[in-house]
Amino acid sequence: MAEVVLDGITKRYGDTLALKDVSMTVPDGAFVVLLGPTGAGKTTTLRMVSGLDVPEGGDVRIGGQSMRGLSPAQRNVAMVFQQYSLYPHLTVRENLAFPLKSPLLRTPQAQIDMKVAEVAEVLQIAHKLDNKATALSGGEMQRVSIGRALVRRPSVYLMDEPLSSLDAKLRADLRIELKRIQATSGATLLYVTHDQIEAMTMATHVGVLDRGRLVQFGTPREIYEDP
Ligand code: ADP
Ligand code: ADP
Q1: ABC transporter domain: which residues (predicted)?
Q2: Using a 6 Å cutoff on CB, does residue 16 contact ligand 1?
Q3: Extended beta strands in 40-184, E state
Q4: How far is the CA of 21 from the centre of ligand 2 (A)?
Q5: Which of 69, 88, 93, 184 is 20 to 30 A from 140 via CA?
Q6: What is the ipTM of this complex?
């Protein structure tokens, strides 16, 4: 159960009011696409949920639990950034396995191998498992970044334009895969994009931000039929 609630979130960076009293209830298992012009507060919204940054006012709750004081590691969330953030000296296999190697998790090696193989298959990267990350194309690196989030099977995914560096064919394939992952895993997704096709094909809900305010939130049908 991972309903995500933003309750009156305010965030300031110096003189910039990045978020102003943003409240949003994201139902368990929803695929929320956040839209809005550059600087609207989309990335900041994800950072509030991930715990990478702390709100000035308001609270974030996941599955009914307040995230106040919890570090990113203590939240059951995985974030995918627009810019791939891999360990360059490790292979694809090692990069994908990394999140599962934490001593706290004590995941058996056989299970790690299985999860890595499964994710590599889904992301069409299985043939590159033994290549160093530095030997990959940009699109391949971004798929591995997405894979590093998927192996953890979090209850909440936070994705910041994860497909924007990919070519059109791969973007279309991965739209279908991400939608399938959301539908079968029951995970909740908050997903930032500028791509209207992604919004319309993947979203169960759309949130529109403008200058730090949430100006619309609803199903794609509600948003697009009621401009
Ligand atoms: P978006 O993702 O919609 O483009 P952001 O959430 O990145 O918007 O940024 C919202 C506002 O906050 C922008 O005006 C941006 O310049 C500002 N901002 C974001 N992060 C920082 C930061 N670390 N320091 C200063 N200003 C920031
Ligand atoms: P996007 O529009 O793709 O969200 P941004 O360029 O707004 O990307 O932000 C990229 C990163 O830079 C974010 O981590 C954000 O917090 C940070 N950032 C954005 N604006 C500023 C700023 N004015 N000063 C410092 N950091 C910023």
Answers
A1: 4-227
A2: yes
A3: 57-62, 65-66, 77-80, 156-160
A4: 20
A5: 184
A6: 0.72
